[in-house]
Amino acid sequence: DTGVSQDPRHKITKRGQNVTFRCDPISEHNRLYWYRQTLGQGPEFLTYFQNEAQLEKSRLLSDRFSAERPKGSFSTLEIQRTEQGDSAMYLCAGRRDNSYEQYFGPGTRLTVT
Amino acid sequence: DAKTTQPPSMDCAEGRAANLPCNHSTISGNEYVYWYRQIHSQGPQYIIHGLKNNETNEMASLIITEDRKSSTLILPHATLRDTAVYYCSRSNDYKLSFGAGTTVTVRA
Description:
The structure holds two protein chains of two kinds.
Chain A lengths: L4 E3 L2 E4 L5 E6 L6 E7 L6 E7 L2 E5 L7 E4 L6 E5 L8 E8 L7 E2 L3 E5 L1
Parallel strand pairs in A: 2-11
Antiparallel strand pairs in A: 1-3, 3-8, 4-5, 4-9, 5-6, 7-8, 9-10, 9-11
Chain B lengths: L8 E5 L4 E6 L8 E7 L6 E6 L4 E2 L4 E4 L5 E6 L8 E8 L4 E3 L3 E6 L1
Parallel strand pairs in B: 1-10
Antiparallel strand pairs in B: 2-7, 3-4, 3-8, 5-6, 6-7, 8-9, 8-10
């Protein structure tokens, strides 16, 4: 158990709908990361928070994507006007400031029909 | 994005050592090498990391070449539960850059 939970684990939505995913790390995880993983590929970095501040966003994060970590604890990732190409596993990872390890949650698998 | 290169798959006999190679020829001086593994339907699990020196922990050993352009993860005594996709990645402190990984199948 990594201490990082994600909800929901699976989401099926129709093209054009908005979806929101939640990540809950443990309180010691000052740093929080979002990654996207498509079938047969390794995870790709999306964005990174240090406490509540979003410090880095990948060019993969189009204008339809937004992430928040309002109180420096849980985080949400919202995708607006979903497209079939958004179908993927969305992974969240937490990390302590004085540690090199990122602890991944189980992921949210999104299917856009 | 800078990534890593790994063989797509490899088999290993149970109880034998598994040596997983990784090429990261464009790695920067401040980037660490990380290894994670992923079992189906789970998030990646941290194994080990290193900068220049060889490292060992309870799970594995990491051998990094002197020029840091490649590395090898060694699972000393593979078990059936080690069957997974193994990712070699690199990090400049915040984001991890993964390749496509090696699917390792441990056979009895």
